[in-house]
Design goal:
Strand 10 (330-340) and strand 11 form a beta hairpin. This protein is elongated. The longest helix has 17 residues, at 155-171. The strands form two sheets. It has a ten-stranded antiparallel beta sheet with strand order 2-3-6-7-1-12-11-10-8-9, with helices on both faces. Helix 5 (82-95) packs parallel to helix 6 (107-117). It folds into three domains: 8-133, no CATH class; 137-254, no CATH class; 269-384, no CATH class. The chain contains 13 helices and twelve strands. It has helices at 19-26, 30-35, 48-59, 67-79, 82-95, 107-117, 119-133, 155-171, 239-254, 270-274, 314-320, 364-374, 390-395, and strands spanning 136-141, 179-185, 188-196, 200-206, 209-215, 218-226, 231-235, 287-299, 305-310, 330-340, 346-351, 355-358. By secondary structure, the chain is an alpha+beta fold.
């Protein structure tokens, strides 16, 4: 996930950024640079040597570096590229804010100017990019097996969720200060969670001296509520985080902490059962063809043995080499290649359990329908569907969406 690193937008040659704009951006932090023997004033004009020294100082922040400077560098660097510039322009359009009139701005220039004038706009644009850019998630079906109506959380609810996540992370010795941002993006309600990771100690060089530094890196998790599918998609590193996010979203959005059970959702045994028929598009309108390009089998025993087949059209290759998949093994991973009518080709890598990765986030609903048809996507939910719950009855009466805090932001 994203973390602070050396600002690459200053790794280029002298003049790669607007130097007057860079000076104005750094002016509020002039005391920090004076302490590091570098003076910045309102009439400073950088030459090439000064630029190189300034870039070196920014790449090696000390413990006294202002947190706002570090955050600004992070956001600017993340969007200082063509895609980032597109996302910023879209953010200006959504907010109804006119773009800067100077048409000579590079992506880094636009990002710096945005931070100086509309810092929340830059944060929001970058967090939305993070939320929609992840391709690998664990998937959790709600226990009613269908989409359920809910109201967007208000700022009060977002604050309560932040506080609970801060406690959760503090209990795991990863510090507090968790921040939560929400973005309502069409059919997806996206949450970006910034949290602390474990402390790291290391040696670093400052000038001619060696020092030891203790830092707590920032980590980012992504949570997507798929409104049309009735699912929760989570990108996080720890199983405990997945479980907490399932409980948190279930309780705060649907009034039920157990709304998203953590049981397995994907079952790859139909590959054994159907053989080559698993490559059928299954009459899903929009899917032209399906190819199985990779399969991993596990022979279970006191010492598990793993065997992986890779190649275009696995079944064709197996026949050519007089091989076949091994019945009685557990398939733990399969990679499918989808040719779609209205989108570029998409590769989906499915792991038995809850994890799936897409090469790009297009045609996902078509692929989900295909998996359901073939029995790869299951519910694994031990309940009697004929017995409605009190919550199901309550949620069946749809209410209008809240008009409060459809997007909640934080300065962090």
């Amino acid at each position: 996930m994203p973390a602070f690193r050396s600002p690459s937008f200053l790794n280029n040659d002298f003049g790669s950024v607007d130097l007057d704009l860079l000076r104005d951006f750094l002016l509020p932090f002039s005391d920090y640079f004076v302490a590091r023997n570098f003076t910045i004033s309102a009439d400073t004009s950088f030459d090439e040597d000064q630029f190189k020294k300034l870039a070196r100082l920014l790449r090696t922040p000390t413990r006294s570096a202002p947190s706002e400077l570090i955050e600004a560098q992070f956001h600017i660097d993340e969007v200082a590229n063509d895609r980032g510039m597109e996302s910023l322009i879209l953010a200006y359009s959504k907010a109804g804010i006119p773009l800067p009139t100077n048409d000579e701005l590079t992506p880094a220039d636009l990002a710096m100017r945005t931070w100086m004038i509309h810092p929340e706009l830059l944060r929001r644009s970058n967090y939305e990019r993070i939320a929609t850019g992840q391709r690998s998630f664990r998937h959790y079906m709600n226990r009613h097996e269908k989409p359920m109506p809910f109201q967007l959380p208000t700022t009060v609810v977002i604050n309560a969720m932040e506080k609970r996540l801060s406690t959760f992370n503090r209990d795991r010795h990863r510090g507090g200060g968790t921040a939560l941002w929400m973005h309502d993006v069409g059919d997806v309600l996206a949450f970006v969670v910034r949290r602390g990771e474990n402390l790291k100690r290391g040696e670093y060089i400052e000038g001619e001296k060696s020092r030891y530094q203790v830092q707590r890196p920032a980590g980012y998790d992504t949570i997507l509520v798929q409104k049309q599918l009735g699912e929760l998609h989570v990108h996080a590193s720890l199983i405990s985080e997945h479980r907490e996010y399932c409980r948190l979203i279930g309780e705060q959005l649907f009034g039920d902490e157990d709304f998203f059970p953590t049981s397995e959702l994907f079952d790859l045994s139909p590959i054994h059962e159907l053989g080559e028929d698993i490559e059928s598009p299954a009459f899903i309108d929009g899917i032209e063809s399906v190819q199985l390009d990779e399969v991993t089998e596990v022979f279970m025993g006191s010492q598990n043995l793993t065997k992986t087949f890779r190649g275009r059209r696995i079944f064709v290759q197996l026949r050519e080499h007089q091989q076949q998949l091994t019945l009685g093994t557990r398939i733990t991973k399969a990679k499918f290649r989808f040719t779609l009518r209205d989108y570029p080709e998409v590769t989906a890598t499915i792991h038995s359990g809850n994890t799936i990765s897409y090469s790009r986030q297009v045609g996902v609903e078509l692929i989900e329908a295909w998996m359901t048809h073939h029995g790869i996507k299951t519910t694994g939910l031990p309940r009697d569907p004929a017995t409605p719950t009190t919550l199901a009855n309550a949620l069946s009466d749809s209410k209008p969406a809240s008009t409060t805090a459809s997007v909640a932001g934080r300065a962090g």
